[in-house]
Write a structure and sequence with these properties.
By secondary structure, the protein is mainly α. The chain is built from 5 helices and 2 strands, in the order ββααααα. The radius of gyration is 17 Å and the shape is elongated.
């Protein structure tokens, strides 16, 4: 048990809260950044994938990633609220799963583009998602 501000929490519950809060912040910020700065993201990705056959698919890829990120962020955000109020992990599990799918898509794009450093950075997020799925069940 962990005691925080006089409230006792199990380590498992604390881990669930921290993981889902982290994923909610990550995907809400990233998804909404793409929505707000769509043009800037398109320009960056056109340059990033410029030497790859993926350059022709930047707009549809960005659309899919944006929808997935916003959906994962909203599901994780609601999952955090649900976890706090009812101690249920139903939405947290769905949000974590969507986060994992999103990271797989991003990882695949980075590997195809031969951006191995960018792909390697995503492994840390993917491991967090796997741990999150495990502790949510």
């Amino acid at each position: 048990m962990i005691e925080i501000f006089g409230i006792s929490l199990s380590v498992e519950y604390a881990m669930q809260l921290l993981v889902i809060a982290f994923l909610a912040a990550l995907f809400l910020q990233s998804g909404f950044d793409k929505v707000v700065d769509w043009r800037g993201n398109i320009e960056y990705l056109m340059e990033h994938f410029g030497k790859s056959f993926l350059s022709r698919f930047v707009t549809p890829m960005l659309t899919v990633i944006t929808v997935l990120e916003v959906a994962a962020g909203i599901a994780c955000g609601y999952g955090l609220i649900e976890l706090l109020i009812w101690r249920s992990t139903k939405w947290a599990l769905w949000g974590t799963f969507l986060a994992g799918v999103n990271i797989l898509f991003l990882f695949t794009g980075q590997r195809i583009n031969k951006d191995y450093v960018g792909a390697a950075v995503l492994v840390n997020y993917f491991l967090l998602v796997l741990a999150g799925l495990y502790i949510m069940t």
